[in-house]
Amino acid sequence: MVLAEESVTRHLGTEAAAWFRGVEETGLLVDLVADGLLQPFERTEIADGSMIVVSPRIPFVTYPSEWTTSMLKDAALLTLEIIDRAWDREVHVRDASAFNVVFDGGRPVFVDHGSFRPGHTPFWLAYGQFCDHFLNPLALNALTGTPQRTVWDSSLEGLSAADLRGILGLRSLRRGLLRHVYVRAALERGGDGLDAGARRELRSEFGVAPDKTRGLIDTVARQVRRLEPTAPTAWVGYEDDNSYSVEEAAVKEQALRELVGAVKSRRLSVDLGANTGRYSLVLTDYFDQVVALDFAEGAVESLYQRIRSGEAPRRLTTGVSDLLDPTPGRGVLNEERPALLDRLSGADLFVWLALVHHLVISRNVPLQIVATAARRLGPTHIIEHIGPGDPMSQLLSASKTEGSWPSDRAEFERAMGEVFEIVAVERVTQYRHLYLYQAPGP
Amino acid sequence: MRAVLAYIDAGSGSLLVQLLVGGLAGLGAFAKFRWHEIRARFRPKKSPMADPPAPTDRAS
Predict the structure, then answer these.
(1) Is B57 within a domain?
(2) What is the count of structural domains for chain B?
(3) pLDDT above 70 (res A135)
């Protein structure tokens, strides 16, 4: 697979190409693309019988560790829909990994074109992986309130039945989970005695009829639908920064628009600490793609639901991430799944509204580090400075026992000035200003 | 790598659960499968190096 700026190219060898043709003949792929379930593609035959499959590249991708629980559920339902439709046409899908789903704006889309094969199989081969990647994390959340994201911190293969059973204990005996969690975990241990060859041999000897497999797929789908994303009991409501009056918010929005107008490149913008996305939406008026990130799952979830319902435009995408502990590189050489900072760098504009004072006051990040982090991300930033006189600043500072808020405007400009040049400043209130910063040079 | 093993060589648990779905015929197959598994455990192995680690081994 080759990633270029605008496209993803796969080369299929003669055998894989033959399978691909077989699948295409069923009409499945055309239907999936038409319904927006599968990323569009174009394929070219090569003289030797192999094939090139090219798809448009989605400009910014998030990984399951950045998804709210609803996002995982929607990815799960998409995957099941595809597996289901494929089975109906005597095609099977080799795997059911959460990494095969990418959010195009707010909409999940399947991107593993190489996963389809003609024919039914004697077992649903991907059932185990589907459970580990989708069903188990969703069940963990539904029954304990733990966000599904935590599952991916230690594993790129989701949550195993054995681990989930250990966590849930007797709760895994519930009707909907009994088979997939409790029984599956129990039976997996029994298989340790076999080597891979014997297992393969046994697998070829036994199987289930295709309609039974169809039944299992439907049962799993029903179970996934029943698992409701759940917040932990200590729920905190997320509203926009409510120290603003309506007039002040309007002034801030106008200030933002003024500054954005001065930014030349409009392909991709990132709203950091986006909260419920009020200003991310403003950015969608100017940029082809907008990414809204926040470390609070509740805020991201509320924005995600608005994108999903169509209330927010589709070119807005969202995800959960702590800027001070962004997703690291994962997988082979820690490059297979690039780090968040690497995925973000190259954006045309980063927006930091009502954010820096949180980083400096609540999380003790020196301004110099903020400036360095900003430079690492890109050359162009709109940053809101909130002075010590502001009520929000004072609220945050009140809980600190040592030192005082170290940053008035002069100090802020000094720290940022080591790395950036001021392009423009807009006043929002006496204590709040928006700065448009540009790093000098190429 | 594990992703490859996960679907090419599904752990028996996933397969056995599916056999259980199949009604009486399924139960029969299930019993037979389990019997083979248990029997295999007591067979002398060729050499420990010949067998790849079972996919259900999770080094978490």
Answers:
(1) no
(2) 1
(3) yes
Q: Per the structure block, which two tokens stand in for A426?
A: 């807009």
Query: Options 3.40.50.300, 3.40.50.720, 3.50.50.60, 3.40.50.150; which CATH number does A246-438 get?
Result: 3.40.50.150
Partners of A109 in beta bridges: A102
Q: How many CA atoms lie within 13 A of A183 on its CB side?
A: 16
In this prediction the ipTM stands at 0.73
Give CA–CA dist A114/A16, Å, rounded.
8
Q: Report pLDDT digits (tens) over A197-213.
A: 766 776 677 788 899 99
Residue B52 lies in a domain: no
**Residue A159 one-letter amino acid:** L
Residue whose entry in the numeric block shows the structure tokens 């979830």: A301
Length of chain B: 60
Q: What is the pTM of this model?
A: 0.89
Chain CA centroid to CA A432, Å: 32
Nearest to A203 among B15, B26, B54 (CB): B15
Across the interface, whether the CB atoms of B10 and A127 are under 8 A apart is answered yes
Residue B2 distance to chain A (closest CA, Å)? 8
DSSP B16-29: HHHHHHTHHHHHHH
Domain assignments of chain A as residue spans, ordered by start: 60-226, 246-438
Judge whether A106 and A313 are in contact, CB under 8 Å: no
Q: Residue A271: which of A173, A377, A363 has the closest Cα?
A: A377
Q: Establish, for the pair of chains A and B, how many residue pairs have beta carbons separated by less than 8 Å.
A: 134
pLDDT digits (tens, 9 = 90+) for B10-33: 567 888 888 876 666 667 777 777
Residue A329 phi/psi, 5-degree rounding, is -65, 140
User: With an 8 Å Cβ cutoff, are A195 and B13 in contact?
Assistant: no
What burial class does residue A250 get, using C-beta atoms within 10 Å of its C-beta: 0-12 exposed, 13-18 middle, 19+ buried? exposed
B45 C-beta neighbours (distance < 10 Å), count: 12
Q: In degrees rounded to 5, what are phi and psi of residue A3? A: -100, 120
Decide if A117 contacts A206 (C-beta within 8 A).
no
